[in-house]
C-alpha cells in the first residue's frame, strides 16, 4: 500500500511530529510505501512576511493545491493520511485528492476543526465559545494573545466551516480517545465518521534498561512546558517542595518569560531531549507529572512514563482518566487545585513501595494496550473503512 501522509510541522518540536514520524516508520516496517507532503512552520519564527503569507495560505493555498495535483499525477496512492494542515498546506489539498477517488483519513490530536486555537482554552481557562460556528470569539477574546494571529485563526476556521473544505472532503476523522470522540460529536461531526485510535509506545524498554536508575529521585515534567500543559502548576509545586529535585524535559522557549525569570532553585531545565538522553531522564524520575489545564486528547508522555515503570500524577481532565487509572497506575487531581497536587506528590514521593507497585501496573498497561501491533491493526481497519466509504459512494 502506498500511503500519502500530509503534515505541516509546528515551529518547534511537538508530540504531533513524534506521532506522525513514528506512524510512518511503523508503516514502512510493515512493507508499506510512504509518500510525504510536508511543510514546516519553523520559517515563521520572527518573520513578519512569513506571518502574512501564513494568514492567507491558511485560508487557501494555490501552491499546495498544485503540489498535490502534481504528486498524485506522478504516482499511484492508495490512501491519504492527513494530520495538521495549517498554515501552509491548508484544506486546499483535500478536494483534489477526493476528486481522484482517494480515501482521506484525518488524524485529529486537538480540536482545531471547531476551535481556531485547537485547544478549547482561552487565557488559561477552558473555553467552548467557538462551537456552533462562532469563530469570531477567537478574535474578540484574542485567544492567541496576538490580535492578527487570533483574527487569522478565526478567519481560516470560518472559511473552512462555511465552504466545508474539510468536513466535505475527509472520509474519516480519527481521534485519540473516547473523550475526544464525544467532543467531536458536540462539534458537529457525525458519529459514524469518527474512529478512535490510541497512540502507541515506539519501543517498550526492556526491564534491565528501565531499572538502571533504580526507583529514581526526581519529579519529572516531560513535553512542551507550556501554560496549557500545566508548567505553571508544576513550578509552583516545586516551589512548595524545595527539598525534592524537579526536572523538565522540553524546549524552555515554550515557557512564559515570567516563569523562566522566577524559576525555583530545585528545578532543572534539561531542554528538548531524545534517544538515550530522554531515556536517562526517565530513569532519573521517581514520579512523572502532567498537571494539564486543557482537554488533552492523548498525551504521549503518559504512556512513555508508564513504559518506564513510573507512576503518573496527572490532572483529571480530557482523556487523561482513560490512560492513568487512579490509585492503580498513578493519581489524578483537580487541575485547578495546586494544594492537592502538592499533597499527592509529597505523599507518593515518600512511599517507595507504592511508587514501584504503580509503576509495574503502568508498564503492564502500556505493554498490553498501547503496543505497536494493536495500533497497526486498528490503523489498517481505519484505512479499509475509508476505502469502503469511497467504494460505496
Question: Averaged pLDDT, please?
Answer: 93
Helix content: 40-55%
The end-to-end span amounts to 21 Å
Q: Round the Cα radius of gyration to an integer and report it.
A: 21 Å
Could you state the CATH homologous superfamily of the largest domain? Glycogen Phosphorylase B
Could you say what the CATH architecture of the largest domain is? 3-Layer(aba) Sandwich
Number of helices: 16
The CATH class of the largest domain is Alpha Beta
Per DSSP, what share of the residues sits in E-state strands of 2 or more residues? 15-25%
State the low-pLDDT regions, or none.
Answer: none
At CATH level 3, the topology of the largest domain is Rossmann fold
Q: What characterizes the major β-sheet?
A: 6 strands, parallel
Could you give the order of the helices and strands? EHEHHEHEEEHHEHEHEHEHEHEHEHEHHH
Tally of distinct domains: 2
Tell me the total number of β-strands.
14
How are the strands ordered across the major sheet? 2-1-3-4-7-8
Give the class from helix and strand content and strand pairing: alpha/beta
3D shape: globular
Could you walk me through the main structural features you see in this protein, from its secondary elements to its overall organization?
There is one protein chain. Strand 7, helix 7 (178-186) and strand 8 form a beta-alpha-beta unit. It is globular, with a radius of gyration of 21 Å. It folds into two domains: 2-113 and 166-200 and 372-392, Glycogen Phosphorylase B (Rossmann fold, 3-Layer(aba) Sandwich), CATH 3.40.50.2000; 207-369, Rossmann fold. It contains 16 helices and 14 strands. The strands form three sheets. The chain has a six-stranded parallel β-sheet with strand order 2-1-3-4-7-8, sandwiched between helices. A six-stranded parallel β-sheet has the order 11-10-9-12-13-14, sandwiched between helices. By secondary structure, it is an alpha/beta fold.
